[in-house]
Each structure stands twice: as C-alpha cells, then as structure tokens.
Amino acid sequence: MAQVLDRPVEVKAPTSPAERTARRRALLEWIAVHSLGVAAALFFTLPFVFVFLTSLMSDSQALSRDLIPHTWEWANYKKVFDTPGFLTWWKNTLIYAGLGTVLTVVSSVPVAYALAKFRFRGRNLALMLVISMMMLPPQVVVIPMYLFWAKQLDLSGTLWPMIIPMGFGDAFSIFLLRQFLMTIPNEYVDAAKVDGCGDLRTLLKVVLPMARPGIAAVALFQFFYAWNDYFGPQIYASENPGAWTLSYGLESFKGMHHTDWNLTMAATVLVMAPVILVFFFAQKAFVEGVTLTGVKG
C-alpha cells in the first residue's frame, strides 16, 4: 500500500491539437489578465514609492535625478515633526476628522432608517430633497454660510463652522445608508416590533448590528473627506494658524521648504500614512458596505 501511495502520479499530456490549443489559450489569458493587474498595481503604487524614497534623500540628492537614496535620511521625519505647528495640525485634523465622522454617522443613521423603513406621506419627496442636496456644490452656499458663522456667531478662525454642520446629517451619507438599509429584510423589523420593541430600540438592537458594513463605509468616506479637506480650513481657519489642519498646513510647509523636496515629501508621507493605514485595516468592511448599497432601490 505504501509503495502505491509513494508512486508518482503520471499526468497525461494533451495529445490532440484541440487540447494543446485550449491549454495554450488558457495560459495566454492568465498571462494577459495578471499582466494588466500588475501594470495597474504599479501604476498606482509607483508614485507612493517615489514620494517615500525622495523623503529619505539628502537635500542635494533630492534635487538630482537619482531614484534610490545614497544614505537613508530617517532624520527628515524628525525635522518635519520639529517644525513649529506640525503637531498642532495633527491634533486639529484628528479632532476635525474624528468628531466630524461621529457626528455625521449619529445624525445620518436615524434619517436613513426613516427613509428606508417608515411609510409616511412625503417620503419620496424627502428622498428627492436629499438627492438634490447631493447635487448642490458647496461653493454655492459658502458666502452666506461664512457670513453666518463669522458675523453672527463669531466662530471664524476655528474648526467649529466645519464640525457643527456635520451634526445635522450629510446628504451623501444619508443616501448611502438608506440604500444599505433597504437590503435588510423588513421581517426583522416587524419581528422586533411584535416582541414589543419601539422604533428606537429596533434601530439600536436589530438594525444597527446588521448595518455595520454600511456604517463603516459611511464613516470611512466621511473620515477621508475631513482628513483631506482643504477648502473648509482655507475658508474658516486660514486667519488662525492654531486652527490649521494638515491639508492646509502642508501648503504652508511646502511654501517654507520649497527647495527642500525631501522634507516636503516626508511631510506628505506623514499626512497620507494614517489614511492608508485606516483603509488597509478596514478595507473589507468598506468594500462590503459599498458593494451592498446598490442592491435594492
């Protein structure tokens, strides 16, 4: 029995022209598909590699055509952190992105739940208003909003004009969550109500645990938007360097070090790194949430 098991298995090679042609075609298709995948991966990855390698070069080498650092200058990152105000920009960005994401999710979930599961007069009109708000460019309302926050409430030079509106819902987040909640069968909601759960308890105990992928996708979208937002800090916080975020502070940093490309690239890496890490660890929930938002409409 052992001899039989140890005997090598003979694979019969294709002998007919049709089998050889089919095998050759499958091999060429595999090479074509994976070649395109590798090319696409390189297309998106090489710019990040270039930025990272440049951030580790010396001042003189960063202005040359060299692609690989002669000496790995890790001290460039320490120089960036030692820049006055850089840690303050980090703190402000974390407050803006973190608090804004929490407020957006908390305020958008109940509205999306009502539009997805409640039956009331004017529901379609309310949904159309949400969609119409998605089509409205922020530049249209920037002047009256600035006058309101700066002149009426005297909040210019702070992050609050950008954070407070997130507590009143976001049109894109509401629409995305509504589409995801439509995929949850109504039988679960009806069963919870039969057991005596009210609307709020049904939302908290039944719907939210099933909607985690959609909520994760919305939270990541909002976090990325706030982390990379340049327009809002430029409008409301430009007059106060203590309220600058990383996106706006990076522009000032580039102006101060316009010839020090190694330091500019090091600052760019430090700005991009948290977003890349967050997406790397949450990509499964993000992809699942985005994929399931369009199943039912």
From TrEMBL:
<keyword id="KW-0813">Transport</keyword>
<dbReference type="GO" id="GO:0005886">
    <property type="term" value="C:plasma membrane"/>
</dbReference>
<feature type="transmembrane region" description="Helical">
    <location>
        <begin position="127"/>
        <end position="147"/>
    </location>
</feature>
<feature type="transmembrane region" description="Helical">
    <location>
        <begin position="261"/>
        <end position="282"/>
    </location>
</feature>
<dbReference type="InterPro" id="IPR000515">
    <property type="entry name" value="MetI-like"/>
</dbReference>
<dbReference type="GO" id="GO:0055085">
    <property type="term" value="P:transmembrane transport"/>
</dbReference>
<comment type="similarity">
    <text>Belongs to the binding-protein-dependent transport system permease family.</text>
</comment>
<dbReference type="Pfam" id="PF00528">
    <property type="entry name" value="BPD_transp_1"/>
</dbReference>
<keyword id="KW-0812">Transmembrane</keyword>
<keyword id="KW-0472">Membrane</keyword>
<dbReference type="InterPro" id="IPR035906">
    <property type="entry name" value="MetI-like_sf"/>
</dbReference>
<feature type="transmembrane region" description="Helical">
    <location>
        <begin position="210"/>
        <end position="227"/>
    </location>
</feature>
<protein>
    <submittedName>
        <fullName>Sugar ABC transporter permease</fullName>
    </submittedName>
</protein>
<feature type="transmembrane region" description="Helical">
    <location>
        <begin position="30"/>
        <end position="53"/>
    </location>
</feature>
<feature type="transmembrane region" description="Helical">
    <location>
        <begin position="94"/>
        <end position="115"/>
    </location>
</feature>
<keyword id="KW-1003">Cell membrane</keyword>
<feature type="domain" description="ABC transmembrane type-1">
    <location>
        <begin position="90"/>
        <end position="282"/>
    </location>
</feature>
<feature type="transmembrane region" description="Helical">
    <location>
        <begin position="159"/>
        <end position="177"/>
    </location>
</feature>
<keyword id="KW-1133">Transmembrane helix</keyword>
